[in-house]
Write a structure and sequence with these properties.
heterodimer, A: about 120 residues, mainly beta, 4-stranded antiparallel β-sheet, 11 strands, B: mainly beta, 6-stranded mixed β-sheet, 5-stranded antiparallel β-sheet, globular
Chain lengths: ~120, ~110
């Protein structure tokens, strides 16, 4: 059973371009979480999705950022018109259920390092 | 608003020392607390998870304690080894909320031979 997969592992964009980050959860997991880690900081929650639904997007910036988790395929975090401040590591995690299932460990992917020039 | 603080931010010790990493949180209404390890350029590895009703968890040379009422957790590492060098992150889940983690900034640990 492969772990959480993220691609690309490294992404370089120029200011104003779009960045698309992909996350494939572990097999059988229908809950996906995105976190952002700025240099020298801890991870900050961005968004929590189930298949075809955004459950909690309280950590998402109001503009330029969007996320989806379609019925088929990976979850996508999309950043439009990137700026230098978007440079960070973006981590995806998955779990088989939400909190209602009891103890639910999130399994983290290796992250995508985004560099905006 | 829940805030998680980790002290110290960085630690460098010789091999063999016993270590204590500290984590504090401002809102005691947590569901559980989790310690992770992060290696440079890698993802996160879960080390220990403590439910709010528990006082401690142990795994090998690692022991994590939780004092929910005072908003504190400690990670104890016995007989440290160079392979323990990594960043250690503490994270809490809010009680009654969704399954999202609130992280501290981490403690960067270097164990030298």
């Amino acid at each position: 059973n492969a772990g959480v997969m993220q691609n690309p592992r490294h992404l370089v964009r120029r200011r104003g371009q779009e960045a698309r980050l992909r996350c494939s959860p572990m097999k059988g997991h229908s809950h996906v979480y995105w976190y952002r880690q700025l240099p020298e900081e801890g991870l900050k929650f961005m968004v929590y999705l189930q298949k075809e639904n955004i459950i909690d997007e309280s950590g998402m910036p109001k503009e330029r950022f969007s996320a989806e988790f379609p019925k088929e395929g990976p979850s996508i975090l999309r950043i439009q018109q990137v700026v230098r401040g978007d440079s960070a590591a973006y981590f995806c995690a998955s779990s088989p259920r939400g909190l209602e299932g009891g103890i639910e460990t999130q399994y983290f992917g290796p992250g995508t390092r985004l560099l905006v020039l | 608003k829940q805030e998680v603080t980790q002290i110290p931010a960085a630690l460098s010790v010789p091999e063999g020392e016993n270590l204590v990493l500290n984590c504090s949180f401002t809102d005691s209404a947590i569901y559980n607390l989790q310690w992770f390890r992060q290696d440079p350029g890698k993802g996160l590895t879960s080390l220990l998870l403590i439910q709010s009703s528990q006082r401690e968890q142990t795994s090998g040379r690692l022991n994590a304690s939780l004092d929910k009422s005072s908003g504190r957790s400690t990670l104890y590492i016995a007989a440290s080894q160079p392979g323990d060098s990594a960043t250690y992150l503490c994270a809490v889940r809010r009680a009654g909320g969704y399954n999202k983690l609130i992280f501290g900034a981490g403690t960067r640990l270097a164990v030298h031979p």
